[in-house]
């Protein structure tokens, strides 16, 4: 899986940068639920006004059971690119080869 790079500030990790449109609406809602519930419900993520950062487990078997097939496929792609996170940003990159939900 991903190789972290040590630096004087700690570990440096890679992330896959995508538009929020690549995240299914139900997953976006789950991220918002997580943030509004204080982390007691929904999809575990870091969030801000323009999107979310979702952790990509090192091993496929560690992906939560309730992850949508679309997000699971993005996690596979992120792992293949040695990424620890997927950053979904409203102004993020649009990949024409990936499904887009709006």
UniProtKB/TrEMBL annotation:
InterPro entries xref list: DUF5983
Domain DUF5983: 16-102
UniProt protein name: DUF5983 domain-containing protein
């Amino acid at each position: 899986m991903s190789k972290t790079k040590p630096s004087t500030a700690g570990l440096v990790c890679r992330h896959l940068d995508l538009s929020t449109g690549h995240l299914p609406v139900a997953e976006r809602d789950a991220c918002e639920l997580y943030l509004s519930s204080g982390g007691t419900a929904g999809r575990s993520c870091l969030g801000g006004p323009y999107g979310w950062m979702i952790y990509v487990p090192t091993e496929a078997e560690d992906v939560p059971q309730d992850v949508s097939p679309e997000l699971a496929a993005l996690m596979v792609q992120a792992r293949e690119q040695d990424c620890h996170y997927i950053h979904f940003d409203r102004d993020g990159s649009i990949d024409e080869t990936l499904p887009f939900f709006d």
